[in-house]
Amino acid sequence: MPTLFDPFRIGDIDLANRIVMAPLTRNRAGPGQVPSALAVEYYRQRASAGLIVSEATQVSSDGQGYLDTPGIHSAEQVAGWRRVTDAVHAAGGRIVAQLWHVGRISHVSLQSGGQPPVSSTARPAQTRTLTREGWVPVSAPRPLRTEEIPGVVAGYRHAARCAMDAGFDGVEVHGANGYLIEQFLRDSINDRTDHYGGSVENRARLLVEVMQAIVAEIGGGRTGLRLSPVTPANDAGQDSDPQALYEYAVAQLAPLGLAFLEVVEGSTGGPRDFAPFDYAALRRRFDGAWMVNNGYQRQMAMQIVASGAADLVSFGRPFIGNPDLVRRLREDAPLAAFDKKTLYAGGAKGYTDYPTLDARAVA
């Protein structure tokens, strides 16, 4: 039987084990949304993961939704990320960039010229975001014009190329948690009347076009996708038929030969049984590596990999306080808690100062 600690290959990427560090927004980018020197150390410390998925990284300036999140669309950002990927590779790890456009989960103060954020809709989300003034309600968006959408797709393609130039092993497209792609997918948000709205086929069109463009640029073997079929994150109401929607979307992606699909089961960071969904039926429509996420503990993770129901398990919050999480899982060692007060927009404290087992033993 396969184990959580076995080497594994996803697409064109060889991994040392099946433990994945999930994307974790930490709001510590420097001027120009460039990853800081602290980020180099933070990711290096966690390079024992079979795969690191970077924090969500905006594909364009209008894709930003939170203070001090990094981008992957300028030369300076590429150079900053190159320092990160070099450090991870020197430590024996593998890392992919999570490509992100927040859509309506933004604030005018974070948008060029104070413009409203863009979305599938003009309806604002009932949620908050982090700005220089603290946590504030997000701004009302404007719906993208049909003729603007090819430019959005091109932005994802450019970001994928930038990620490869920065030394990433591949990319994961963020199609989850109520951000732009999910704002088009779900009929609870998408109220368009053009060929990007209405039917399941139309609402999945943006996702399919983005994935096709990225695969044409860097290849399916280095491309993955994150989906969250039922999460309520960021005021994403339930689709009227999530099973049909996501099964259709995944089936459309099958010909692309994607390296992996990461699926958030249930409510992101919350109850796994938030709403009914047949994840096994979704998997039957996908030929690449199957990665599961949300609330997995050691025994659960080991069992699902051993059973063959998943190929990889991604862990988010446990990696914050446990840079050596792989070792702790292997040895069944206690996990350290993380400091909630330092999750966002801070410095080294609560970011790069969590001790490893060896460091704790010396202390």
Account of the 3D structure:
The model has no long low-confidence stretch (mean pLDDT 97). Helix 9 links the parallel strand 13 and strand 14. The protein is globular. It has twelve helices and 14 strands. The strands form four sheets. The chain has an eight-stranded parallel beta barrel. Strands 1-2 form a two-stranded antiparallel sheet. It has a two-stranded parallel sheet with strand order 6-9. The chain has a single domain, classed as Aldolase class I (TIM Barrel). 30% of the residues lie in helices and 16% in strands. With 363 residues, it is α/β, with parallel strands linked by helices. Helix 1 packs parallel to helix 2 and helix 3 packs parallel to helix 6.
What is the structure about, briefly put?
The chain has 363 residues and is α/β, with parallel strands linked by helices.
Topology summary:
Blueprint: E1 8-10, E2 13-15, E3 19-21, H1 37-45, E4 51-58, H2 75-90, E5 95-100, E6 118-119, E7 128-131, E8 134-137, E9 142-143, H3 149-165, E10 170-174, H4 180-185, H5 200-203, H6 205-218, E11 223-227, H7 242-253, E12 260-264, H8 279-283, E13 289-293, H9 298-307, E14 312-315, H10 318-321, H11 325-331, H12 357-362
Parallel strand pairs: 3-4, 3-14, 4-5, 5-10, 6-9, 10-11, 11-12, 12-13, 13-14
Antiparallel strand pairs: 1-2, 7-8
Helix pairs in contact: 1-2, 3-6
